Amino acid sequence: MSSLAQTQPALAAASLPKATAEPAWVKWTLVTVALTFLTLFLVLPLSVVLYGAFELGVKVWWDAITEPDALAAIRLTLFVLVIVVPLNAIFGIAIAWAIAKFEFKGKTLLISIIDMPFAISPVVVGLIFVILFGSQGWLGPWLSAHDIKIVFAVPGIIIVILFGTLPFVARELIPLMQQQGKEEEEASLTLGASGWKTFWYVTLPNIKWGLIYGVVLCNARAMGEFGAVAIVSGRIRGETNTMPLHIEVLYNEYMFTAAFAVSSLLTGLALVTIVIKSWVEYKDERRHKTA
Amino acid sequence: MSISIEQVNKRFGNFVALDNVNLAIKTGELTALLGPSGSGKTTLLRIIAGLEQADSGIIRFNNEDITGQHVSERGVGFVFQHYALFKHMTVSENVAYGLTVKPKKFRPSKAEIAKKVNNLLELVQLGWTADRYPSQLSGGQRQRIALARALAVEPKMLLLDEPFGALDAKVRAELRRWLRRLHDEIHVTSVFVTHDQEEALEVADRIVVMNKGRIEQDGTPEQVYDNPANPFVYEFLGNVNLFHARVKQGQSSIGDLQVPSPEYTNSEEQDGLAYVRPHEIDVFNLPQPDAIKVKLDLVTIVGPAVRLEVLAESDQQLIHIEQPKEQFKQLNLKQGDTAWILPRYTKVFLGEGI
After folding, report:
1. Do B84 and A290 touch (CB under 8 A)?
2. Are residues B281 and B316 in the same domain?
3. B101–A197 C-beta distance less than 8 A
4. What's the CA gap between B163 and B192, in Å, rounded?
5. Residue pairs spanning A and B at CB distance below 8 A
6. Under a CB-based contact definition with an 8 Å cutoff, are residues B130 and B50 in contact?
């Protein structure tokens, strides 16, 4: 009996793959197609950026990114990130909370509206805000009467990037919070915890990884946003040029090395983002395995 | 802590969850809210806890109106069907939670909290799990931890929402006996929701049977089982056979069989329904006066008992019977044989029943 039990699984294991697996050539064709595609459209362009940036040596690269206009662009981009990312995180948590834990009229509408920024072309987004806040726009006369500048200034940039990255955190958190339900929060409340303590000790730890993931994605998109920013910023050098805009200016002026140098910086930031994202995914997966 | 529920109503959209419910629960009692799903039992429990707000009506704890009090101030211990343990905290952090979130003024010292957590884990016999995470425990263990967590804040009452509903049969049976003993030890006023009549009969001091947002009957397990107030309670508290009956002046006739129905002495002749439980029917292998002649359609042996499905010869009505195996063996009957049956105890309700 015991020898039977031992030999049977071995037999099954040997005969199983034939029944379920595709032929080897299918597998290798697919792998080759995927790898070729990745090389052509990801690895190659990335290498070109790095090659272009460092072609004339590290000194030229360093000069290109420490040039005043480049520094201003980097500073502006980071400044925008510092404002946009926390605001989006807060908004994302708020809307995910509302959708996952409350019942109200218009909930389905809200869920579909939240994806709008992804669907609308960035150029259109830029135009919307120019029409709203521009000097010829609806709110233009009132704004100029109160000496508030939004379009062709930093507030405009922040607004369009905020709009464009709005869904990232919320989309990440809504399914997560819906799946978790509200029992743990209710348990916390019955144990005497206030609403704030419940959020801090129960809700936030439960959504931590989803939140970080959403923030990382939001961050990546906010750095690279081009179309909408190009329209509302007015492209004032050293003032309203973010990094992507600055790269375009350099490129249009045939300063390829400088353009590549700033590009390499942006690419570097993107790579860091991807590493963080993978790490978060890895941690999250491990947490699910133990759970 | 006594609980008093006065004229409580609750609707969800068009669905009436609670329809003018009145109930008083005495201090130290273990009460079961028993009913099918949708009967409003969980809603009532959540309204007592403050997790749900009644549309109208009053809730009192010890005669004090707490209808508008927030759940975090009611001092109730609540146990959820799916445990609702904090996944990211260890077992001891879970149990300590209610104490650690207290405002500084009322919070015990770290050493006191640790001591209390240890005592509670001993009480639920899970001291060795202190440093584990909930995901590493079985369902039954998780529910005991959830109970320890609820007890940590010394609640005025314990409310349990289908506490054993997600567990398998054996763990369920163990855990409910354990809950009964625990209640005998600590005597905190407890209300638990269940749709399992056996669980309610076994554990509770008192059973409140609910249906469609109303209370059908309220009494000790014996009262509710032996004297069901209406057909619904009768059917809900165990399997039952239904027979058409004619009721007249304290007598009911079921076919040729006459049974006394002293509660209807003054009634005109009218239709009724006779309820007979499967284990309250005698089976004979020889003709008996008044007995119903039947054919044994199906004989199933379930452990120590025998379940019979028999067909009445007169109208082919299907009747369920349950007997101890030994008793049935002595009759020397087998599937397909003819037999005679007599109900030992019959309860007749007027009208067409439910």
Report:
1. no
2. yes
3. yes
4. 8
5. 70
6. no
